[in-house]
Amino acid sequence: MLKHERLADWLEEIRSLCEPDSLVICNGSTEEYNQMMNLLLKSGAARKLNETKRPNSYLVRSDPADVARVESRTYICSESEGEAGPNNNWEDPETMKATLHGLFKGCMRGRVMYVIPFSMGPVGSPIAHIGVEITDSPYVVASMHIMTRVGEKVLENLGRDGEFVPCVHSVGIPLESEDEDSIWPCNPENLYVAHFPETKEIWSFGSGYGGNALLGKKCFALRIASAMAKEQGWLAEHMLILKLTNPEGTSRYIAGAFPSACGKTNLAMLIPTIPDWKVETVGDDICWMKFRPDGRLYAINPEAGFFGVAPGTGMESNPNAMRSLEKDCIFTNVAETDDGDVWWEGMGPAPAHLIDWKGNDWTPKSNEPAAHPNARFTVSAAQCPAIAEEWEELSGVPISAILFGGRRATVVPLVNEARDWVQGTFFGSIVSSEKTAAADGKIGELRRDPMAMLPFCGYNMADYWSHWINMGKKNKDFLPKIFYVNWFRKDGEGNFVWPGFGENSRVLKWIFDRIEGKASAIETPIGNLPSPNSIDLEGLNLSERDLDNLLKVEIDGWLEEIPLIRDYYSSYGNKVPKELENELNVLTEKLRRAKKVA
Q1: How far is CA 444 from the centre of its chain?
Q2: What is the pLDDT of residue 443?
Q3: Which one-letter DSSP state was computed for residue 482?
Q4: Which one, out of 16, 89, 92, 466, has a CA that is 20 to 30 A from the CA of 28?
Q5: Which residue is catalytic, options 107, 262, 287, 457?
Q6: 286: which residues sit within 8 A by CB, 6+ positions away?
Q7: What is the assigned CATH class of domain 305-383?
Q8: How many Å apart are CA 146 and CA 150, to the nearest integer?
Q9: pLDDT at 429
């Protein structure tokens, strides 16, 4: 018997709409997880991996039509289109609800309706929030067990009248008595992932995979949470959180936002190359931050697991991630080895034979990759050997620095410190990556991804920038320093200048020392760049020419980019904060003066 009257009423409403055969309230137990995996084994969707090679781990293959987030079918259903902004697909809430009610009517016939009470963040944390996901997918139940905190403790914390985010999900394929179920039921022709910021609801139909179905992930943790954060005065960000400790034992916590293919997870689990420095992981993907009474900004990782992209992950790029995957994992759409283990591109040399992600024979001569490019691993964060002991601290960890980064071959230097919070927000608003190589020194076609939030902000991005500006006015004395980093600069021959990976610890060390007031910097038109010899390069084979490439101010390149930034801002009309417009004007004037002097 549920104590929470509003929750009980909502469950009855959805049960009547979806018409399942039965209803189960999930308790988060190991037995329940095993039961879900047994259902997937029985259906043929999952295979148990070799117990000796990969204990208590499973390989799942999805339908080839259901393999990734579908941004074109993801909607923000705010009261007005302007509130959603040009960064989102908008639909009128009443129109969308009518569509969804038509699709959800009877959609769970022949299936079980699972009710998943889950906490985003450690249960009881003042930064955490609770959701309840309804689903008809055992895969979703099992994955939510790993990715969130599920069960009776959540309901106890919710009490009789606590707030929760209602999340409704269905694979969208009802089963009549004579029907044979699909191995991976889905309905991609009628796929909808709809968010309602005003009522804090999420409805998802037709997909059983990833961020379309695990509604605690991007849907709640970013799109709905960002809207909640704007209303309530906190930040919900697409950021890693790492703990950096110097040889003297002093630790600082750093958050960082990086678009896809920019090494975010690798940085979160980095193994430093400089002696006696240590990096530990608090989170690899999502960061919720709130001011506490001491005036500082504290952060939690609201997730309990890693839902990482497998291809490209290997012992060379991310040994801590690989060591996290030695047991108790769900692998989705990777390849299977002949001895019952898993393989993907980037893991190491390809075996002579594999079963690919579609279940077909594969050899190195095959024309298609063995693992889907968006193949995933799902594993508890507690299994990461680099996990920080305070990663589940109820109060969160105090953030001393925030990093923004994109993938740029030119223009953006290796590391650049903002002079203040407003300039840091400006840096975040212009984050971009080149779609094409820019080794010739020209500005390539840029894909803007401000704060790495473009697909995930639950409202107008320009209003989101205003929220950042307003947050900076709250506690000016204790705000984190903001840095713009770029590991991907190239030389004239198109080769990466900076070695990256573990060597990024050298940049982290300079950032740490800037926080402590120890490292020197040079004020430039674009911000504060490291002064000569302030970055520890000992043992690194880097020429003076390379270092100059990494840390120079490309005046002409920035001047070429100014009109691109203005055009991008203009796409948001008159909503762009005046503070950011002013930053752009100041930057333009400083660059012009510097060009005259040069």
Answers
A1: 25
A2: 55
A3: E
A4: 16
A5: 262
A6: 217, 221, 222, 236, 237, 238, 239, 301, 302, 303
A7: mainly beta
A8: 9
A9: 98
In DSSP terms, 335 is beta-bridged to 343
Give 444's pLDDT tier (boundaries 50, 70, 90).
low
DSSP string, 381-450: GGG-TTB-TTTT-TT-EEEEEEEEE---SSSS-SEEE-SSHHHHHHHHHT-EEESS--TTSS---EEE-G
How far, in Å, CA of 106 to CA of 478, rounded? 53
Task: Assess whether pLDDT exceeds 80 at residue 1.
Answer: no
Alpha helices by DSSP H, 148-209: 152-158
Q: What is the CATH number of domain 5-45+70-232?
A: 3.40.449.10
Spatial CA neighbour of 568 closest among 457, 462, 420, 410: 462
pTM over 0.90, yes/no: yes
Find out whether 207 and 213 touch, Cβ atoms under 8 Å. Answer: yes
Half-sphere exposure at residue 528, Cβ-oriented, CA atoms within 13 angstroms: 16
**Catalytic annotation on 262?**
yes
Task: Grade residue 136 by pLDDT with cuts at 50, 70 and 90.
Answer: very high
| Amino acid at site 59 | L
The average pLDDT across 178-186 equals 90
Q: Is there a shared CATH topology between the 5-45+70-232 domain and the 237-304+391-597 domain? A: no
Close Cβ partners of 482 (under 8 Å, ≥ 6 residues apart) = 401, 402, 403, 404, 417, 418, 421, 423, 424, 425, 427, 428
Give the per-residue pLDDT at 2. Answer: 85
For domain 237-304+391-597, which architecture applies?
Answer: Alpha-Beta Complex (3.90)
pLDDT of 532 reads: 86
Torsion from C-alpha of 9, 155, 144, 256, nearest 10 degrees? 110
Evaluate whether 406 touches 428 at the Cβ level (below 8 Å). Answer: no
CA–CA gap between residue 83 and residue 91 (Å, rounded): 11
The residues spanned by each domain of the chain are 5-45+70-232, 237-304+391-597, 305-383
